[in-house]
Design goal:
0% helix, single chain, globular, 124 residues, 4-stranded antiparallel β-sheet, mainly beta, 7-stranded mixed β-sheet
Length: 124
């Protein structure tokens, strides 16, 4: 069984930065693609970023391109989301997800395991 635990969320002013972390346990991490999704109040969960098993392929939602960076450290079983130039519309609960394939997807149904989420609040 795969367990995912997110951390690093919090309250930040617009224009600021946060780095989210997601540490996995229970199964092999290095052969799984990972993704970040978010859900704002009253909205559906949406794709943010994904990274392939070896970090060689990444993809981002248009709304975060140039501001967010996804990365991973397979030795630490951890995936990161560096968020810069934060905007109020980035306010959401951010979820980490693992997929039982080498390459990621921007579709939430393609992911097999999910964390509990971490709140990010950006004040304007």
């Amino acid at each position: 069984q795969v367990q995912l635990v997110e951390s690093g969320g919090g309250l930040v002013q617009a224009g600021g930065s946060l780095r989210l972390s997601c540490t996995t346990s229970g199964r092999t991490f290095s052969d799984r693609a990972m993704g970040w999704f978010r859900q704002a109040p009253g909205k559906e969960r949406e794709f943010v970023a994904t990274i392939a098993w070896n970090g060689g392929n990444t993809d981002y939602a248009d709304s975060v391109k140039g501001r967010f960076t996804i990365s991973r450290d397979n030795a630490k079983n951890t995936v990161y989301l560096q968020m810069n130039s934060l905007k109020s519309e980035d306010t959401a609960v951010y979820y980490c997800a693992a997929r039982r394939t080498l390459y990621g997807s921007n579709v939430s149904k393609d992911y097999n395991h999910w964390g509990q989420g971490t709140q990010v609040t950006v004040s304007s």
